[in-house]
Amino acid sequence: MIHFRCILFNSVSAVCRQLVPALSATGTLSRCGSRGLPLHRTLFSSAARLQEAEATAGKDFSYFPPLPGQDSALRWGGKKFEELPIVQIKATYNNTHIQLSDSAGQSLVRTSCGTEGFKNIKKSTPIAAQTAGISAAVKATAKGVTFVRVVVKGLGPGRLSAIKGLTMGGLEVVSITDNTPVPHNGCRPRKARRM
Questions:
Q1: Looking at 17-169, which runs of residues are DSSP E strands?
Q2: Roughly what angle, to the nearest 10 degrees, separates helices 126-142 and 159-168?
């Protein structure tokens, strides 16, 4: 097993050593194929990386994100990351609440599974959360919002479905942050149920 890992590591490191000199400043990999034809492959996959490459073509490039308060060349719809609206998703076991607010904290859109017409146990399903996400996204695009940051809180079944609903509704999700409160052995739990 150890011998196999050493062979795998050596082969991967050899391939990486061959690829590093071929990487040009434009982000394309140009090497000759098996028949002598040039092989061009773009290494940048997201629009943010392309923007970063265009903005810092002459400057020193950093792979690390900017620190808070540090200026960055990245823009989404002409706005900095700190100026983007925030979508708060609170996924409880019985419901999923979605609220869109601007960077100052003023509420723009608010919806939940209950306001979308789901009752009782159906409020706690992923389909209900996805429907609420689509509804929130449609209301947000009507107010001119396209790029958002997402902050998720809670462990309910509608966590991922609400984010999927936001993207299906036409919003571009820039970042996803998990803000679920985790107790460090705080309060004493309830006594166990007697069955």
A1: 28-32, 38-42, 86-91, 96-101, 107-112, 147-153
A2: 40
Provide, rounded to the nearest whole percent, the portion of the chain with pLDDT above 90. 51
**pTM, to two decimals:** 0.63
Q: List beta partners, residue 109.
A: 100
Give dist(CA 171, CA 139) in Å, integer: 10
Mean pLDDT for all residues in the chain: 79
Q: Is residue 163 within 8 Å of residue 88, measured between CB atoms? A: no
What residues contact 128, with CB distance under 8 A and at least 6 apart? Answer: 96, 113, 116, 118, 122, 158
> Partners of 100 in the beta sheet?
87, 109
| 58-92 confidence digits (pLDDT tens) | 555 666 666 777 777 778 888 888 888 999 999 99
DSSP 64-89: SPPPTT---S--BTTB-GGGS-EEEE
Q: Could you give phi then psi for residue 176, rounded to 5 degrees?
A: -125, 125
**Alpha-carbon radius of gyration of the chain:** 23
Task: Report d(CA 159, CA 157) in Å as an integer.
Answer: 6
What CA–CA distances, in Å, run from 43 to 30, 53, 65, 156?
Answer: 11, 11, 18, 36
**Tens of pLDDT along 133-192?**
999 999 999 999 999 999 999 999 999 999 999 999 999 998 899 999 998 999 998 999
